[in-house]
Amino acid sequence: MGVWPYPRWIAHRGAGKLAPENTLAAFRLGASHGYRAFECDVKISRDGVPFLLHDATLDRTTSAVGPAADRDWAELSLLDAGGWHSPAYAGEPMPSLAAVACFVRSNGYALNIEIKPTPGDELATGRAVGHACLRLWHDEPLPPLFSSFRPEALAGARETAPALPRALLVDEPWPGWFEMAQSLGCVAVVSNHKLMDEALRATLRSAGLHALCYTVNEAADVERLRALAIDGVITDAVDHFAAD
Asked: Cα separation of 112 and 37, whole Å?
């Protein structure tokens, strides 16, 4: 198992509690707290453009309603993705993956892209995100880390960007998850922090897999994971924990 090249502390959805999640405003706020690595959710529009959004629908975090996959990027790019959070962020747009790549590359930051496909679009989303990242990070020494709960999405990313690193997200153990991570050529597993203990850490280490945990917002959990020498900690609490 090689040295993990990414920063240990990762801002979840930018600074997705203090600012509208998955927006450049959230990334900038996370950066202002000293964070140099960010996690975000990426899916594709009807016309195949990768952009940031967590949910399958637009209802919770934008000024529109309905499935995001039913709209082209030209329409999605005009929606208000900040007003739901607070008036100060009204008018903040959803960014394309290309815009996020520009921000992180210009500042030397690292990015964990959770491939978050609309149900039924897993393989196509993985392929599109992989293809886009090859173009957007073609000359960068530190590529983005792909992660997903959906093995099909990681398989799609592997098809179009086989050299870019992949990680399986695990919320609850399911039969064959460990073997799946290995078969997909993953370099890491990103687990719910509640699952991580000495036994799981040892299992991952013995297989040459790095260990990351989400979403870690309490000091007691940080200390427990620090004792386990976890490689990455994904947090909302960018104002409480200093990034190292």
From this structure: 8
Which residue of the set 33, 54, 85, 138 is catalytic? 54
Q: What is the DSSP string of 90-119?
A: TTPPPPBHHHHHHHHHHHT-EEEEEE-PPT
CA dist list (Å): 228 to 3, 51, 202, 224:
16, 34, 9, 7
Q: Which letter, b or e, does each residue of 201-227 get, where b requires 16 or more Cβ atoms within 10 Å of its Cβ?
A: beebeeeebbbbbbbbbeeebbebbee
- pLDDT digits over 118-137, tens only? 999 999 999 999 999 999 99
Which of 12, 85, 193, 210 is catalytic? The answer is 12
The answer on pLDDT for 2 being more than 90 is: no
Is 54 known to be catalytic? Answer: yes
Instruction: Retrieve residue 163's tokens.
Output: 């050299």
Using a cut of 0.85, tell me whether the model's pTM lies above it.
yes
